[in-house]
């Protein structure tokens, strides 16, 4: 996969564990959506990828906030095997199996999805990969890994939350790209070991990076830190697509205290990163 | 229902729209769990009450955080009609129908629940009422309103999030009790009109109140502000049952920036409350 890099990471001064290739950064570029980004855009069709043991809040916080702005994104909850998919509530730290969310859509070979009844397949404009306990098994799920790589390559937007970046990283779709992940996982070195070509940023609430591909296309990657950070990252995506005022209004309605600055990451320090 | 009041509200100095009866408050009592509250307690069996149009994050944030500590609570997702229950993502403000969560348990007359297959009924120790668009219809659902009143009367803990307090208030279970709700709903006067005997507190991230009932029993009411505030309130419940250190650990794992002080409520000011 040929890549030309243009970095819109909002915390370009955060430490990176590995730096491959040259990354041109502009703090300004990512700090506020420019006039072009605030233009009315077609809503993204976004596949929310569910798998057994996804972390409940990884999905639900962005789901709530993006679901509040259908002009920005229309969410399709999709899985390899549609139907109820059991979530996880911090199971790796002694928590429980969480409630099941219903996947109404099926992942299809080649990065498409269709409704569970076998309707017309389509390629989503955006994909959203949560993390969770299930990641440890899914990294060996060739179907899912292939799906993610193919869908990410064609997507306008790729959003990951928590260890979703570890899972996506295994597919190679994040190679050479600045990204972050769950702080505990990063402390333990899991994402770095599984996907050594990702430019892991240890200190960042979330990271935005716009990848320029051949043919003039771009893919915006937004990777967030653990669990709750997904809400902040989803708001950043809303800000890019619809402007800061819309993003602030969504946060306000949900009484979500948005950490607007992606470089403010107290959890990195807490975990010694 | 006879009530003897002992206020453990954590923001006893917040304004109340109505004050019925005498409420004895102690800021100290609620600010940190005392030795008694930190004693090892049996996990609460908690019925999470789902209804069509519940707000996704109202359920998922406390679900995630309480699900992380099975020594504190074991959650049973229950509905009048078990199966997939469609959530809402800020639909009243132009958002969308959200993903469906699966209710595995059925609400039964008299405040009990059983698994959906009709297993042995039991009375939950705790009930959790979320808010959402669906509240506007469910306030006229006599079965649900009766279930809530009866279950709340026998429960050790009652937790509401967002307009869940409006719904519970209609049952009479919050009469004479300090409680809060979604800020936008409070600004528009909806909970106050629907449940005028509740001691509505306009400025509070959440409110805790321990009600002493006849026979020496108590019910702890924790009512939270809108949507995301439910996570902070759930952590307050964890702190009461397992101590502050456990609550902070749960927040830390989820990278949730916990607003530990229930009286800090910037959204109240934003909404002119």
UniProtKB/TrEMBL annotation, chains A, B:
Q: Which residues form a coiled coil?
A: none
Q: Which PANTHER family match?
A: ARAC-FAMILY TRANSCRIPTIONAL REGULATOR, THIJ_PFPI FAMILY PROTEIN (AFU_ORTHOLOGUE AFUA_5G14240)
Name it: DJ-1/PfpI domain-containing protein
Residue ranges constituting the DJ-1/PfpI domain according to the UniProt record: 122-187
Q: Which InterPro entries match?
A: Class_I_gatase-like, DJ-1/PfpI, INH-QAR
């Amino acid at each position: 996969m040929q890549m030309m890099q243009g970095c819109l990471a909002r915390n370009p001064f955060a430490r990176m564990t590995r730096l491959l290739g040259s990354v041109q950064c502009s703090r300004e570029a990512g700090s506020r959506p420019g006039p072009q980004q605030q233009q009315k855009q077609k809503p993204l069709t976004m596949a929310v990828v569910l798998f057994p043991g996804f972390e409940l809040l990884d999905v639900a916080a962005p789901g709530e906030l993006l679901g509040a702005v259908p002009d920005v994104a229309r969410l399709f909850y999709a899985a390899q095997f549609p139907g109820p998919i059991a979530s996880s509530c911090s199971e790796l730290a002694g928590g429980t199996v969480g409630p099941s969310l219903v996947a109404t859509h099926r992942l299809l070979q080649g990065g498409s999805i269709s409704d569970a009844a076998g309707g017309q397949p389509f390629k989503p404009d955006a994909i959203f990969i949560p993390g969770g306990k299930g990641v440890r098994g899914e990294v060996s799920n060739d179907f899912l890994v292939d799906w993610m790589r193919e869908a990410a390559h064609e997507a306008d937007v790729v959003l990951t939350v928590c260890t979703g970046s570890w899972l996506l990283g295994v597919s190679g779709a994040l190679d050479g790209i600045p990204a972050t992940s769950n702080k505990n996982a990063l402390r333990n070195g899991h994402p770095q070991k599984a996907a050594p070509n990702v430019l892991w940023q240890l200190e960042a609430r979330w990271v935005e990076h716009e990848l320029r591909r051949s043919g003039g296309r771009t893919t915006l990657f937004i990777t967030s830190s653990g669990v709750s950070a997904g809400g902040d990252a989803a708001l950043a995506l809303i800000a890019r697509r619809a402007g800061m005022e819309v993003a602030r209004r969504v946060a306000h309605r949900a009484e979500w205290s948005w950490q607007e600055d992606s470089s403010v990451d107290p959890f990195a320090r807490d975990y010694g990163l």
